[in-house]
Write a structure and sequence with these properties.
212 residues; alpha/beta; five-stranded parallel beta sheet; 7 helices; 5 strands; 60% helix; 12% strand
């Protein structure tokens, strides 16, 4: 079956939660309701979520306080949050949102098409992250079967070598810039090609490190 991401909808009013579900139903993802900040934090302990849509004005723990708790937890600190609030929210509250490291901010009544488009972007980012994590696990497993050393040991040594090559390449680039004014010289072209190769190798090393 196709993978379905979890989206957490947090609002103290049932009619607002129903409206969010109606807006996002065409995306065919798993939508989980929470009617308070406390309920949202409990849900985040039980499931992994690709995105959180969080109402700002709620009794008890408001959206900003809830977001602060979410960002303090290692498991959930990188989960993106879109704040939803009524028009007229003062600038001080907006700054509180930025301090809580939310990702986006929309006012009610929100444009359903725009909200759905934003959610689709975050779902795609979540898909790409999961894909990279899967590739990392495969690479680490394959590497582990081909060497007597531990995977972490091999990756650490590889990262050291990549760093050394990057440093030497930087010095070579500086020397070439001083000694050659021809932008299309063979030396500079070779350096650009090496830059590309080293960049690709760096991406591979980061993939082997696996999810943080």
């Amino acid at each position: 079956m196709p993978y379905k991401a979890n989206i957490l909808l947090v609002d103290d009013r049932d009619d607002n939660l129903m409206a969010l579900e109606a807006t996002l139903t065409s995306l065919d993802q798993n939508m989980v309701r929470a009617s308070s900040g406390e309920a949202a934090l409990k849900a985040l302990l039980e499931e992994d979520f690709a995105l959180i849509l969080l109402d700002v004005i709620m009794p008890g723990m408001d959206g900003f306080e809830t977001a602060a708790h979410i960002k303090q937890r290692e498991r959930t600190k990188d989960v993106p949050i879109i704040f939803l609030t009524a028009e007229g929210t003062d600038r001080h509250q907006v700054f509180r949102g930025y301090a809580a490291r939310f990702v986006d901010y929309m006012t009610k009544p929100y444009d359903p098409w725009l909200l759905r488009a934003k959610v689709e972007v975050f779902l795609e980012l979540d898909r790409l992250k999961r894909q990279l994590d899967d590739q990392s696990r495969v690479l680490r497993r394959e590497l582990g079967t081909e060497t007597a050393d531990s995977v972490d040991s091999v990756v650490a040594r590889l990262a050291t070598h990549v760093g050394a090559v990057t440093e030497k390449l930087g010095r070579l680039r500086e020397q070439s810039a001083v000694g050659d004014n021809d932008e299309d010289s063979a030396t500079l072209q070779a350096i650009r090609e090496l830059d590309t190769s080293v960049g690709q190798l760096t991406v591979l090393v980061e993939a082997l490190r696996g999810p943080s």
